[in-house]
Structures are given as C-alpha cells and as structure tokens.
Amino acid sequence: MGFLDHSTNNIILDAVLTDKGRELLARNDGSFQIVKYALSDDEVDYTIVKKFGRTVGKEKIEKNTPVLEALTTSQVAQKYKLRSVSVPNLVRLPSLGLDGVTSDTISLDIVTTRNSDVTVKQTIGASEVIPNELVDQVYRITVNNLFLQLSGQRPVSINSDSIATYLVTRGSTLDTVTGGSKVVLGVTVKSSLTTTMFDTYGTASDKTVINSYITVTGQQSGSVKDFLVSISKT
Question: What CA–CA distance (Å, rounded) separates 165 from 140?
C-alpha cells in the first residue's frame, strides 16, 4: 500500500497485492484471507527532525517526503517496518553485525572453501540491554539461489529472480551483557555453480569472481544486515 497523492488535504491510498498474494488469491479455494498488516517508514529522512526540531521537522517530512507507490514485489516492499515498544525511555534500537570477523566480506571458492559458518549477532550501545520485545527470535535471510544456499535449511520460498528466503530460529543462548540473540548461518556455494557461469555472472572487472549479497533481517527488531559473499573460481 502506498500514497498516490498527498498534495491536497485528502489522502489517497493505492493498495495492491504482492506477487505472493496474487498467487494465493488465484487458488480460488476460499483460503485467501487478510488477517494482519504492517506499517513502514521507508524513504522517510529523519535527519530533518534533527536539523529543524521536532515540530518544524515533522511538518517538513510530511510535505517533502516523495509520493510513494505501492509495490508488488514483497522483497523490496516495506524494508523498514514500524515497531511498537513499551519501554518509554528507549533511546536507541539494536543493530545486527557479523561476530568474530573484521570485514563484512566472506570469501569462498568452488574448489577448496565452499562453505563458511557466519554468525550474525544483535548489538546495542555500551552498558545497555535490549528490551525483550526487540530480541530477535527468528531471522529472515535472503540469498541468491543461483550461487548460494544455507546448509541444513530449506527455503520457504524462491521468487522469479531466484532469490531464496529462509526463516532461521535464533541460537539457544542470549548474550550475557546485552540480552541479544544471534544466529549461525552455514553459507555454502551451490554444487550447481560451475566454472562456465563465471563468464556470465562474474564481476565486470574480474570474470573469475562472483559477488553476491546476503540480507539478514531480525523479525522482532526489524534490524537489517547486508554482507557480501565473494566466490572465486579457483
């Protein structure tokens, strides 16, 4: 759902079904039901509030935010969903980061190093504890199914662009300081990735390397982490 026009005092909304929604509706067996919805603040620039203050900044956001159009691709619609938090003095939200590494790039190849365990961990400011309702219990991971998969996991869906979506439950223990959760992902190069595919999908500057991003989203916190997987031909 998106705004079609907000140039007048009237708010006109455009509501569409995603590709997955149309697929479910096409079954025509009475099983399609809308039981919940989510709100998001994609494209909102909150630095305007910091620059002009809460009152003037809010007005500038309302007047200057671009007109939004409803999207049918669920992978790009509502990237930053709104969350309800009962903690009245919350000053920052948790974020996601790679644990135990110094770089956001994971290097693999199709000869000797076809897999790597990657740990994604919730973090927050020093001496702070993540509220219980923002501790991620489930993580949504999207990977390019042409090149990569998560070992020991089965994707819940694969779209027409070959993007596979996985839902992975958090690890059994929480961080003793922040109370945050983490998840270990077994990132594996697919056996169907052959040397000839590098000619098509290799980078523009080096046809011996394929770069592919993995996106991890915490289902409770809404935090998002992208990291690069660089796959070498040799």
Answer: 7
Burial 205-223 (b: 16+ CB within 10 A, else e): eeeebbebebbbbbebbbb
Last residue within a domain, chosen from 43, 64, 85: 64
pLDDT tens digits, one per residue of 13-49: 667 777 778 888 898 888 888 887 777 777 788 888 8
- CA proximity to 126, closest of 87, 177, 181, 189: 177
Please tell me the distance from the alpha carbon of residue 12 to that of residue 7, in angstroms, as a whole number.
10
Q: What is the pLDDT of residues 148-176, one digit of tens each?
A: 999 999 999 998 889 999 999 999 999 99
Q: How many domains does the chain have?
A: 2
> For residue 75, is it within any domain?
no
**Is the domain of 54 the same as that of 99?**
no
